[in-house]
Amino acid sequence: LGQITEPPFPIQIRTGDIGGPSAGLMHTLAIIDVLTEGDLTKGHIIAGTGTIEPSEGRVGAIGGVRQKVVAAEAAGASHIFVPVDNYPAALEAPRERIEIVPVATLQEAIEFLESLPPA
Question: Is 42 a catalytic residue?
Fold first, then answer.
């Protein structure tokens, strides 16, 4: 992966009701999924949160992680990416089945997705 400042084609992200930088990781993964062959999630419902630092792909801390874990499970996600710094708080969220996956970088998130078996 590399950084480009002027892509050779138009990119438009419609965020709807999403506000703030905490969707940075998931927007980045969505763009990668569109631009690469195959299904990055392999049919799994994956949620996530975290800011993204463009130059090195570091995933930054966010607010409200416990609520985001609960909402992701209610929406049917099997896994949720959370920033490493938010992992202890995420573990405090009431949940039954969702797996909380701490990530420090975009690359760690990609490697986790690549390790999943098909759903």
Answer: no
Query: In the predicted model, is pLDDT for residue 4 greater than 70?
Result: no
Rounded to 5 degrees, what are φ and ψ at 75? -85, -5
The more confidently predicted of residues 9 and 81 is: 81
Task: Yes or no: say if 104 and 84 are a contact pair by the CB < 8 Å rule.
Answer: yes
Q: Active site residue: 22, 42, 55, 78, which one?
A: 22
Those residues with Cβ within 8 angstroms of residue 12's Cβ, 6 or more apart along the chain or in another chain: none
Give the contacts of 70 (CB within 8 A, at least 6 positions apart): 93, 94, 95
Catalytic residue selected from 42, 55, 68, 115: 68
Buried b or exposed e, range 72-90, using 16+ CB within 10 angstroms: bbeeebbbbbbbbebbeeb
**What three-state secondary structure class fits 26?**
helix
